[in-house]
Amino acid sequence: QHRALVMTEAQGAKPKRILVTGGTGLVGRAIQEVVANGEGRPDEEWVFVSSRDADLTRNIHINDNVLHSAYECGVQKVVSCLSTCIFPDKTTYPIDETMIHNGPPHSSNFGYSYAKRMIDVQNRGYFEQHGCRFTAVIPTNVFGPHDNFNIEDGHVLPGLIHKVYLAKQNGSALTVWGTGKPRRQFIYSLDLARLFVWVLREYEEVEPIILSAVKETCTWFSTNYASARK
């Protein structure tokens, strides 16, 4: 599913209309909540749609449909949501935004990863040819309200939360698979949503930006986010 923030201006300059595709998913609902609880502005009209409201087709066709339609309609800005799975399978750490295209992604996410990578390629192409302000963000693993808590096919944190809940309810042992050696980063969906809104309003670069819980990144965003709100 393609999640994107699309910003246009109505005739007469105001209000700005902001369309959120994937609006009923984990990230979309988080954005809707933070906008409703104080992050929205009087000169903005936010519209949230799901795949039932707007069928964008599948895989790389979604990129073409969203970005080219945005270009044809004179959209001011598009912020697309990428994924950490786009990074090369064989890489060095820490990773940064310059390393996206440095090698093939993991085979388990091959098609999905390349479709997401192509958003970055297309963003750069639309900027170079037409001057469009299309960009993308790369969140780390997201968790929060409206997540998939299914133990069999849910994400890692909601799956662990569900396991802890069942262990407490049943008085049973808590079993967690794995060696404990792999390291992963997580970001709370409502925090991510606030950063999404900041990127939409304040981030002017075409280059994608990682949204993570790393201390330095959080400090950078806290400083800039606070400045943007003054």
Automatic annotation (TrEMBL):
<dbReference type="InterPro" id="IPR001509">
    <property type="entry name" value="Epimerase_deHydtase"/>
</dbReference>
<comment type="function">
    <text>Catalyzes the two-step NADP-dependent conversion of GDP-4-dehydro-6-deoxy-D-mannose to GDP-fucose, involving an epimerase and a reductase reaction.</text>
</comment>
<keyword id="KW-0413">Isomerase</keyword>
<comment type="subunit">
    <text>Homodimer.</text>
</comment>
<keyword id="KW-0560">Oxidoreductase</keyword>
<keyword id="KW-0521">NADP</keyword>
<keyword id="KW-0511">Multifunctional enzyme</keyword>
<comment type="similarity">
    <text>Belongs to the NAD(P)-dependent epimerase/dehydratase family. Fucose synthase subfamily.</text>
</comment>
<protein>
    <recommendedName>
        <fullName>GDP-L-fucose synthase</fullName>
        <ecNumber>1.1.1.271</ecNumber>
    </recommendedName>
</protein>
<dbReference type="GO" id="GO:0050577">
    <property type="term" value="F:GDP-L-fucose synthase activity"/>
</dbReference>
<dbReference type="GO" id="GO:0016853">
    <property type="term" value="F:isomerase activity"/>
</dbReference>
<dbReference type="Pfam" id="PF01370">
    <property type="entry name" value="Epimerase"/>
</dbReference>
<dbReference type="InterPro" id="IPR036291">
    <property type="entry name" value="NAD(P)-bd_dom_sf"/>
</dbReference>
<feature type="domain" description="NAD-dependent epimerase/dehydratase">
    <location>
        <begin position="53"/>
        <end position="207"/>
    </location>
</feature>
<comment type="pathway">
    <text>Nucleotide-sugar biosynthesis; GDP-L-fucose biosynthesis via de novo pathway; GDP-L-fucose from GDP-alpha-D-mannose: step 2/2.</text>
</comment>
